[in-house]
Amino acid sequence: MIGPGKADLLEAIRETGSIAEAGRRLGMSYKRAWTLVETLNATFAEPVVESRRGGAGFGGAALTALGETALSHYRRLQAKAARASAAEVAALRRLRADSAERK
Amino acid sequence: MIGPGKADLLEAIRETGSIAEAGRRLGMSYKRAWTLVETLNATFAEPVVESRRGGAGFGGAALTALGETALSHYRRLQAKAARASAAEVAALRRLRADSAERK
């Protein structure tokens, strides 16, 4: 439903106030950014991004309240997952060819 | 270094005793399965898969001790991450359009 790419896009939309600008920042085409936003909006019970296209040369986008809620759940999910798996990640790193601990 | 696809491949190699058969089971080309194994073997300090090609009509592959260790760290990592993030995943699911809890 939401993954790292979509979460980054939501965050960039919040920061830039623009779907096009958010996409550019993430190296995504305009079309790709819009498609992801449409997918997200269809996934959730209400839109997560609201956009105003055009209008006296002004267009813009912002996260809705639901968008903010979904993004913050996702960031907490990532933080908790990273914290919980840190010891296993460290153990895997120590098995790597380039691990300083083995050199 | 190791992700869900590579972990599944290691597990399938352990179960089938064959890189080709493991790849087939995962819907992967022979070449793709071999490339992933080579990448994994180069990533870790020692090979994670050992293979015997041919030899009186017999070829086979098995995880090395390091391969077993890496795979079990990765599976624990996944389990811990899933457990730690379960509440956030549930919260996100409740925000979805198709959530039974909202219907």
TrEMBL record, chains A, B:
<dbReference type="InterPro" id="IPR051815">
    <property type="entry name" value="Molybdate_resp_trans_reg"/>
</dbReference>
<dbReference type="InterPro" id="IPR036390">
    <property type="entry name" value="WH_DNA-bd_sf"/>
</dbReference>
<dbReference type="InterPro" id="IPR036388">
    <property type="entry name" value="WH-like_DNA-bd_sf"/>
</dbReference>
<dbReference type="GO" id="GO:0003700">
    <property type="term" value="F:DNA-binding transcription factor activity"/>
</dbReference>
<dbReference type="Pfam" id="PF00126">
    <property type="entry name" value="HTH_1"/>
</dbReference>
<feature type="domain" description="HTH lysR-type">
    <location>
        <begin position="9"/>
        <end position="68"/>
    </location>
</feature>
<dbReference type="InterPro" id="IPR000847">
    <property type="entry name" value="LysR_HTH_N"/>
</dbReference>
<protein>
    <submittedName>
        <fullName>Molybdate transport system regulatory protein</fullName>
    </submittedName>
</protein>
